[in-house]
Specification:
Radius of gyration: 19 Å
Number of helices: 13
Number of strands: 2
Order of helices and strands: HHHHHHHHEHHEHHH
Helix content: over 70%
Strand order of the largest sheet: 1-2
Number of domains: 1
Distance between the termini: 10 Å
Strand content: under 5%
Length: 275
């Protein structure tokens, strides 16, 4: 078993337990149980098959499957947001938001920007989904150990924030996007569709964009040292974009940076102890 296998299995078991025990899961309980039991079996078979047959395809799947499983785990986490609490905690969070940021940047700033500027900021949001895997894929041959560490840490960060979203669900300012964001032509509708499809309208007190962005920037700078400043600039633009494009409150983005940094440090230390 590799460290990443364990992080996937532990998360899969935690969601399986939630689906089994939570009275909030009423629809599709049997389907979800069957899916997570299948994932247990599939991961174990993948490990056994890879250990016995060192083919290129097996090695490729073993390396990248945690990121591929995000195609299932991410929208699933959105649908499970109200399994523990039947309501969002936006009211409580907005008390903090208006106290710290009375300007309400998620509402006022997009109204003052041109459609072209908003298109560019939405392009930054979309770049998150590309940079999630592209730098690691490009560096896989010359820096495979570091790529494996990145996938482990990124998985820990993302899975942890899925659970934060389940324990402290919020809707975020997405509901007001139609009032402050123009229809756009390319990046605005694409970002709106992709984020809705990925997260199913669910969000967390801590921004997953910000938390995972910290990990992407940290390891992107390690994988490509000459581009380190560009990754810092990209992270800065991403944090601004999540608020200005009305995907997150300002406090959620700041909380995401803090929680992402904490889990980044924890993930690195855990990985060092398990390899």
């Amino acid at each position: 078993m590799l460290p990443t296998d364990w992080i996937v299995l532990i998360y899969n078991f935690s969601i399986l337990t939630l689906v089994t025990l939570s009275p909030g899961v009423k629809e599709n309980r049997s389907f979800l149980l069957a899916t997570h039991l299948f994932l247990f079996l599939w991961v174990f078979l993948l490990v056994l098959n890879t250990n016995h047959r060192h083919t290129r395809l097996n090695r490729w799947i073993r390396l990248w499957y945690p990121l591929l499983l995000l195609l299932w785990f991410t929208p699933e986490a959105g649908t499970l947001h109200h399994t523990l609490f039947s309501r969002n905690f936006d009211t409580e969070l907005l008390v903090v938001e208006t106290e710290l940021f009375p300007e309400r940047y998620y509402f006022t700033t997009p109204l003052s920007l041109t459609p072209f500027s908003l298109e560019l900021l939405h392009a930054v949001v979309l770049s998150f989904f590309v940079l999630l895997w592209l730098p690691a894929w490009m560096a896989r041959k010359r820096a495979l150990p570091l790529v494996r560490e990145y996938i482990f840490v990124l998985s820990l960060v993302i899975f942890s924030h899925f659970w934060i979203g389940i324990f402290l669900p919020i809707g975020g300012p997405v509901s007001i996007r139609s009032q402050v964001i123009p229809d756009g032509s390319i990046f605005i509708p694409a970002a709106g569709f992709l984020t809705q499809a990925a997260f199913r309208g669910g969000s967390a007190v801590t921004s997953l964009f910000a938390a995972a962005g910290v990990t992407i920037a940290a390891y992107g700078g390690k994988l490509f040292p000459t581009a380190r400043r560009l990754y810092v600039l990209w992270l800065f633009l991403l944090l601004i974009s999540t608020v200005v494009c009305s995907f997150h409150y300002s406090v959620s983005t700041i909380a995401g940076v803090l929680s992402g940094t904490v889990f980044l440090v924890i993930g690195r230390k855990l990985y060092e102890k398990t390899v």
